[in-house]
Sequence to fold (236 residues):
Amino acid sequence: MIKKLFLGLAVAGVCSFFTTATAQPGMGSKRTITVFGTAEKSVEADEIYLSISLSEYQDDSGLRVGLKELEARFLKAASDAGIASADIRVENVSGFGSYQMEGQGFLASKSYLVKAKNIGSVNTLLSKLGDSGVASANTMYYSHSQVDTYMNELKVQALKNARTKAEMLAVANKQKVIGTLAIEDLEDLGNMAYPGGMGNYSRKPQLGSETKPMTKDIGMLMVNFVTSVKVTFEVE
Fold:
């Protein structure tokens, strides 16, 4: 697994400012500095989320192939690809009527959100499905199985980065950081929750900047995890 950690010690456009704040009665005022700390990590995705849609159709003999049969084929193909039923969720059910074509009538469709661990599983699934009844297949997003662990580590690193930045600015202003007064966790608004309760976070995929040796296997996209904190320190 390829990992890369970026420390946001000095980011253009990030505000840091000194203030004099009023403390609790009897304690006088406090001199403070407020900074933003950011931490980032890029790792190779090990979760691929696909949207696969099945649609009823009429075969060459004019017989309807229904959703029950299509779903049975789909679950068998997923099992052959090493994808557990627990990693498949119904995403949507729809249908349309085409009464202009004799005998066709109403045809139903069903779409699924599928979690695969690697490209090999995706290739096997699609090859097993074939084209009969498969209306569409699209990649929705990528993620990583250790997202919660990474985010917890990044929050700690972001806090350390904030303190480093505050100390640097305080020294430049001939002051010294003596304590922490407030910490605000800033969740990245670009991180979407997984639909269907299949996980906690999904991160926007990023292409890795590393130079990797050529292999016979095509690598996965890099997933970029970012977190920030806003911290107010007391200075003297």
Summary: The radius of gyration is 26 Å. The chain has a mean pLDDT of 77. The longest strand covers residues 29-44.
